[in-house]
Structure formats: structure tokens, C-alpha cells
Automatic annotation (TrEMBL):
GO biological process: extracellular matrix organization
Limits of the Thrombospondin-like N-terminal domain: 27-211
Keywords associated with the record: Extracellular matrix, Repeat, Secreted, Signal
Source organism of this protein record: Pleuronectes platessa (European plaice)
Compositional bias segments (type: Polar residues): 399-411
The protein, known as: Thrombospondin-like N-terminal domain-containing protein
One cellular-component annotation, GO: extracellular space
Lineage, uppermost ranks: Eukaryota, Metazoa, Chordata, Craniata, Vertebrata
Main localization of the protein described in the UniProt heading: secreted
Subcellular location: Secreted, Extracellular space, Extracellular matrix
Length: 411
């Protein structure tokens, strides 16, 4: 069942404590809604102090939406919570409450941002777009001081109101909201950054099917816990009626101390008590949060132009600096272009001395054999030589042997 204006059958009766509301009503109080502390089984958690409070942060708190709101949720409702943040989470950004659809898209959520000290309310508009409204009042800063506070959100068709400690903090006009898809899931107290549970303490988490219940809640449990009544009201109980129902848009919100009335029965005076021992010195308190930056100051007037200054004295010449280190060898340059021809040399001086003979060169290699030549032509006849001179007398010849008779005939 999608969210609609019809509330008949969609919201079950809700049992609450009698003194939780103002007793100035002009009609029977029909209390319907959902107790998320029971829906998420927080009643089985760790209970501390006089009033029940539950330490969260050990396990994720997420349930199917149909399990939390069996027949859907009315389009107008009040969300009322009482919690306090812890030292490790006072600056976290986390979902106090969120409903998202089956695909994981957020349909409605309340975000508590400790870093910016704001509260955000967002929902899905008729065009399936996310509409976000941020409440930045300085009164919300106390929500992060690690004390118990009651934070309530009143959702009407086109108005969202934020209450803290039963005081109206801020009210915003909104666009129309789209119907909720109940096939998704609902979660509480989960960090926005990584989806892990938030380490806080919780006393109360209720959703009333009436937007005016956020204004009718008082804060007696914050001021005087011992005055808390045990009697409860269900959906058919009728509290005393003396005044009109508070109107959210016309009447100021009543202060919580005007609504809280302790029983008037006076008991017998007790015996004087024994003087107690001196208490131990308390632990040093935590360092306070850094305050917000103050408003920007007004722009100052432009100053008049100053007179021209005197020329300064010339400075002395500085000392010569030390020789710098030798730089690394540069890369080898590329081969240069051929140079232009040089000018002719000067004439040799005639009076120059002859230089010394150079050393003998090495023996050259044997040359190749020459090509055989062709026979030459006969040469011309030479000229007739001159007549030679008379030769000298030759040497004397040897004496011949004696001749024979036979040789006498030889001359």
C-alpha cells in the first residue's frame, strides 16, 4: 500500500505514557503510530541509567519496510526521538531514519550532520527528483553536546517543522511528495559515508500518524526523570480536556517546563542525613568544539595616497662571487659544413733560411709491372764523326825463332 491521505487501518493504536503530552486538549486523543524501538528489537539492548536507554552501534538496524509499516504510512506524520551522541560520533553525518525503494533510491530521510551542526530532511518529489531541506539554526548546535535531547520532525502536506527539546526551531514550506514504495527497506541510525551503525544512545523512537503530535510532546523526561508517570494511554484513552488543540501555524509552542507537573503529594520529613564525604575530583571535561567563524567585517575606507619617499642611498658594490663548479661535458657536436676557401697566403720571404732536410721516408711498396711497349721507329743516321788523332807507337813485337831451311823461302 502506497502512502496516501487515508489513515484508516494504516496506523495501529500506540501505547504511550500519559504525561508525555500536554493535558490541554478539547477532544479525545486517538494515538496511533509505530514504536521503532520495538520494531528494531531495541528493547533487548543494553539498558543504562534510571530511564531505559539503548547503546547502538554494534549491528546494522535495517528491516523490510513492510515489516515496519504493515499497511503503509500516512502522508502526514510526526517523528519523535530522544538520543544523545557520543564523543566518537558527535561529528559524524548519519541517517536518523531513511526509507529507500527496491532499487536502492532514497524515498525519505532525516540526516543528522555533526560536522556542520545541521539537520536535513529530504523526500522524493512528484517528478521522482530528490528534494532536500537543510535546517541550519544555531539552536541545533546543542544537539551535539553529548547530552540527552529530544528531536522531533512534523511532516505535513507542504510544511516540514523541526522541534528540539519541545521548542519549535524552524519551519519550511515544501513541494508535494510522491507516494512511498513499500517494497524496499527502512533503516535507522546509520552513517551516510559507509552504511555502518552509529555509536549513539537512544531512549525513544516513535512515528505518530498525526503531524501535530510533535508539538504536543513535552520534555518532562529530560528535566525531571523522577516525575515520569508509569500509566500509559492507548488509542482509545481520553485525557483531561481544558483547552483547544495547539495550532502549529498560529500559536507559539509551549515551553516544556510549563507542561511538566510532578505529583503534589507531600511526604513526611525524613531524618537528617549523615554528612557525606568529600567527593572526588571530577575528570577534565572535553575540549569544546571550535566556534563558527564570525561575520565578515565591513569593507574599510580607501586610505589617502602617501607622500613620495626619498631616494635611497646606493648600496655598496658586492663582493665577487666564488667560481662556480665546472659544468659537465657537453654532448659531441655534429659535423660542421665545409668552410669557404681561405684567402691566398703571403708571398715567401726570399731571405728566409732553408729548412733542415726532413727524415727519409719509408720504403714504398713495389709498383705494378708496366705494360710492354711497342718497338720504336729506327732512329735517324747520326752525323760523321771527326778524324781521330794519330795513335801512339805500339809496343815492340816478340823475336821470332830461328827459321829452317824450309823456311828460307818464306819472306
Amino acid at each position: 500500500m502506497a502512502v496516501s491521505e487515508q489513515t484508516d487501518g494504516s496506523c495501529p493504536p500506540l501505547s504511550v505514557e500519559e504525561r508525555r503530552f500536554t493535558d490541554a486538549l478539547d477532544r479525545p486523543l486517538q494515538i496511533t503510530g509505530f514504536d521503532l524501538t520495538e520494531k528494531f528489537l531495541l528493547r533487548k539492548g543494553t539498558i543504562t541509567e534510571d530511564l531505559p536507554s539503548f547503546r547502538l552501534g554494534s549491528s546494522p538496524l535495517i528491516k523490510p519496510t513492510k515489516f515496519i509499516f504493515q499497511n503503509g504510512l500516512s502522508s502526514e506524520y510526526s517523528l519523535v526521538t530522544t538520543f544523545r551522541v557520543r564523543r566518537t560520533t558527535k561529528k559524524d553525518r548519519w541517517y536518523l531514519w531513511q526509507i529507500f525503494d527496491q532499487s536502492g533510491g532514497s524515498q525519505v530521510s532525516v540526516v543528522v550532520d555533526g560536522g556542520k551542526k545541521v539537520v536535513e530532511f529530504s523526500f522524493q518529489g512528484l517528478l521522482k527528483n530528490t528534494l532536500r531541506y537543510t535546517f541550519k539554526s544555531r539552536d541545533l548546535h546543542a544537539l551535539f553536546d553529548r547530552q540527552w535531547h529530544k528531536l522531533s520532525v512534523s511532516v505535513q502536506s507542504n510544511i516540514v517543522s523541526i522541534y528540539m527539546d519541545c521548542k519549535l526551531i524552524e519551519r519550511r514550506l515544501t513541494d508535494e511528495k510522491d507516494d512511498l514504495d513499500p517494497s524496499g527497506r527502512t533503516l535507522i541510525t546509520t552513517r551516510v559515508e559507509d552504511g555502518r551503525p552509529v555509536d549513539i544512545e537512544l531512549r525513544l523512537f516513535l512515528i505518530y500518524c498525526d503531524p501535530y503530535m510533535a508539538e504536543m510532546e513535552n520534555c518532562c523526561e529530560l528535566l525531571e526523570p523522577k516525575c515520569e508517570a508509569k500509566k500509559t494511554l492507548n488509542g482509545t484513552s481520553t485525557p483531561p480536556v481544558t483547552e483547544k488543540l495547539p495550532q502549529m501555524l498560529s500559536q507559539p509552542v509551549l515551553q516544556s517546563m510549563d507542561r511538566c507537573l510532578c505529583p503534589a503529594e507531600k511526604g513526611d520529613a525524613g531524618l537528617p542525613g549523615i554528612v557525606g564525604l568529600a567527593g572526588e575530583k571530577g575528570d577534565t571535561g572535553d575540549k569544546g568544539d571550535l566556534g563558527e567563524a564570525g561575520p565578515t567585517g565591513n569593507l574599510g575606507h580607501k586610505g589617502e595616497s602617501g607622500s613620495e619617499g626619498q631616494k635611497g642611498i646606493d648600496g655598496e658594490k658586492g663582493l665577487k662571487g666564488d667560481l662556480g663548479p665546472i659544468g659537465p661535458v657537453g654532448p659531441k657536436g655534429s659535423k660542421g659544413d665545409v668552410g669557404t676557401p681561405g684567402a691566398p697566403g703571403l708571398p715567401v720571404d726570399k731571405e728566409c733560411l732553408k729548412g733542415d732536410q726532413g727524415p727519409r721516408g719509408d720504403k714504398g711498396e713495389k709498383g705494378l709491372a708496366g705494360v710492354p711497349g711497342q718497338p720504336g721507329e729506327p732512329g735517324k743516321e747520326g752525323k760523321r764523326g771527326r778524324r781521330g788523332k794519330s795513335g801512339e807507337p805500339g809496343p815492340k813485337g816478340l823475336t821470332s825463332p830461328s827459321g829452317t831451311s824450309e823456311g828460307a823461302s818464306i819472306k
